[in-house]
Predict the structure.
Amino acid sequence: MSETYEIDENGEPAGAAPDMLPLDAWHRERGGRMVEFAGYWMPVQYEGIIAEHQWTRQHAGLFDVSHMGQLLVPGNSADPAVEALLPIDLSTLKPGMQRYSLLLAEDGGILDDLMVSRWPDGLYLVVNGATKWDDIAHLREFLPDEVTLNHLDECALFALQGPEACTALERVATGDQPVSALTFMRFGTFRIGDAEVTISRSGYTGEDGFEISLPAASAAQIADLLCEQPEVKPIGLGARDSLRLEAGLPLYGHDLSETVDPVSAGLAFAIGKRRRAEGGFPGADRILSLIADGPSVLRVGLALQGRMAAREGATIFNGEQIVGSVTSGGFSPTCERPIAMGYVNAALSAPGTKLEIEMRGKRLAAEVVALPFVPHRYHRKGA
């Protein structure tokens, strides 16, 4: 997940200290309880994880995700070089479009999952905060010398998520089109306050919502403008995690890693049709074989009986046989029960399969269920 630090006698990190994001003081002034995550101080909650989770499901939550890496590959000639590292088909990514993709190792393991957009001046990538420095090093090593990679480290990144996000954002964002004209995985350029921003209709909660790339110098002004809207409250990392778990979305460093391939992870949709036919991306032989023959394990959803949650690393049993392990787990405020994701033998991945999860020496009854746990409410084109 993130770097770990030894704690001194005062309860503070010893040695390398977490960095501060542009909104650090803003979060603290609003009662954000700050924790170290991905090498930064970030708010885990303000008034409580369940309350913030439910507010986002019903209204709109503002998440500061400025720890994530924003990268730009400028120009329009870098597609072949980028395609050599990702399984995406960039010929189908038109201006104004965004797509999910994967940074792959030579053996087909997942180095990171990321978003790729066709900006007017090049390809814009958003990578995970905990892996961004490794991602940047990997890209700079394997992209040709003539391909430039810019780290947009003077930009902040917000996510405004929830069914009332569009209503709130449209009051403060102006542009050649209204924000409401954007559909899922489309973006445009707008102004909020004194700043030019890029807004995409996307997010990590399963709800309708937006991600906003903005100048770091304008972060407090724009956060204030958004939170002045009656639909919007600031939301911490805790609710972001419970929301993405309910949405069945994998988290890198937990559900995804270098030891996991895209097919086993249920992410084969990220392998473009042309790339399946032509290959030419890292791990193509292995991944295409898994698509054809099926993997030995699969990521599944698990609904638990009782009130005890299963946590990452818990062992999954079929009778006395170990058949997998939990990679994410917690209590679902929406489902009002513990839920989890994990990898199990493919033969046991069908919804309805009864399994057990061992936690603290106890066996918890669990059932494989279809993902997502809570239906996505993305604002898709034509819906």
